[in-house]
């Protein structure tokens, strides 16, 4: 696998969530692999969701500066910005697949980033969303 892989916020959150050690370990394995292969992609929306979750919802969470430092490292993955192209495409995805608007934004960002794989536990594992295959990272090894 050499194409870029889009990572949803839930996977990023699990890298910091000690409440589920098995998921934390697996999320970490995926992130390590994507860093090593330079194939990880995210969107500004995913970074926003990660930041809010780990600083306000996760117990124990991260302090703001630690969360901001982690988010800044993901700037290297050239996050897909929220713009009119993303929004218009997300509406198409939302209607075509009957997804929530927020999930449609994630899928749209993956499409615009040229990803054929979307790592998330929020959608059906194996589902093909117009060329973006959903992979539940907790059911599959990063290899």
Task: Give an account of the 3D structure.
The protein is α/β, with parallel strands linked by helices. The chain has a single domain (5-135), classed as Rossmann fold, CATH 3.40.50. 51% of the residues lie in helices and 10% in strands. The chain has six helices and five strands. Strands 2-1-3-5-4 form a five-stranded mixed beta sheet. Strand 4 and strand 5 (132-135) form a beta hairpin. The longest helix has 17 residues, at 21-37. The termini are close together. The relative contact order is 0.18. The model has no long low-confidence stretch (mean pLDDT 96).
What's this, in brief?
The chain is of the alpha/beta class and 143 residues long. Helix content is 51%, strand content 10%.
Features:
143 residues, alpha/beta, Rossmann fold, five-stranded mixed β-sheet, 6 helices, 5 strands, globular
- Radius of gyration from the alpha-carbon trace, in angstroms: 14 Å
What amount of the residues lies in strands? 5-15%
* Helix and strand composition category: alpha/beta
Q: What would you give as the CATH superfamily?
A: 5'-nuclease
Helix percent band: 40-55%
Report strand order across the widest sheet. Answer: 2-1-3-5-4
| CATH class descriptor name | Alpha Beta
Tertiary shape: globular
Could you name the CATH topology?
A: Rossmann fold
Order of helices and strands: EHHEHHHHEEE
Number of helices: 6
Low-confidence stretches: none
Tally of strands: 5
Mean pLDDT across all amino acids: 96
The CATH architecture is 3-Layer(aba) Sandwich
- How many separate domains make up the residues? 1
Major β-sheet profile: 5 strands, mixed
Oligomer: single chain
Distance between the termini: 9 Å
